[in-house]
């Protein structure tokens, strides 16, 4: 296992560990291999729909024992970001689901709105929302045009499920962008705002001590390259081997595999890209 010098592994969840609620083959074994080598593992997802406590329960159901403190969603990272940037009395309009609302409430924000509001609004937060509609788009547009700061939990255009891809939070972010003609501050990958918050929480000063493993070139791989950490891509989610092979050598991941255990050099270890 080529992990010398690595103190922290950041694992994407959807496409690496699970799809929907279904475990990806060899993911649990790969996580056990990391822990047996005394490597700290944290879980990072751009999916903002679930609060961390729900993800901990979901991972527990498939045999992964993890503390909530080792789970980072784009919703939680957004709450961490606002904890430093905003006032707890600021008024926040949310396009999103339970994951964003719960994390903001836990962080101490009380003036949260997700259906309608009375002006003014200080922040508009946009993430994946399966109940997104024209009314919510209008509320977000009007608030941003009136001066509210625009925050996107992530810009993933699609989201992998057991039944294939569905529209991701980035599809909704793009709608708000178009309507408001404003660019958001993006917390999730491929931006590194959230990753820097994770490194700070674990007192890691050198990104080269970190391995980021994901399943998307346009988010996970780009984020890792921007941060300057080591990178790994599994083929159990969105990215295909052909797509990896077409990358320039300088941009290819440090590690790759059909699944997490394969990437780490476990059984059925495949060829490196």
Shape: globular
Looking at the structure, the CATH topology of the largest domain is Rossmann fold
Which spans of ≥5 residues are poorly predicted at pLDDT below 50? 268-273
The largest β sheet comes out as:
6 strands, parallel
Query: What's the overall average pLDDT, rounded?
Result: 93
Number of domains: 2
- Structural class, by secondary structure, is alpha/beta
Strand order of the largest sheet: 5-4-1-13-14-15
CATH superfamily of the largest domain: HAD superfamily/HAD-like
Measured between the Cα atoms of the first and last residue, the distance is 15 Å
Please state the second-level CATH architecture of the largest domain. 3-Layer(aba) Sandwich
Strand-residue fraction?
A: 15-25%
Q: List the secondary-structure elements in sequence, H or E.
A: EEEHEHEHEHEEHEEEHEHEHEHEH
What descriptive keywords fit this protein?
globular; disordered C terminus; 273 residues; single chain; 34% helix; alpha/beta; six-stranded parallel sheet; Rossmann fold; 2 domains; 15 strands; five-stranded parallel sheet
